[in-house]
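2024-03-11 09:14:02 DEBUG pipeline.ingest accepted 1 chain
2024-03-11 09:14:02 DEBUG pipeline.ingest length=79
2024-03-11 09:14:03 DEBUG pipeline.predict start
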Amino acid sequence: ITGMTVSEVKGFGRQKGHTELYRGAEYLVDFLPKVKLEIVVTEDVADKCVETIIETAPTGKIGDGKIFVTDIERVVRIR
């Protein structure tokens, strides 16, 4: 891997949100903090990259996420 983008994001899936108190009122928070990895690799290392993420990324909690593998049709560098 020669580069990747790591973003702190918020989202939700099948896992439930949680409630928080604010000024005495209880609110349901549906969006949970998550980390999003974006990695572009050649096809010959894609499977190894997926295996490495599966082995190292899990927190053991529900909602650890999914890995999407797609073909990149075109990349345009902005300079």
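2024-03-11 09:14:41 DEBUG pipeline.report Residues 1-79 form a domain with the Alpha-Beta Plaits fold (CATH 3.30.70.120).
2024-03-11 09:14:41 DEBUG pipeline.predict end
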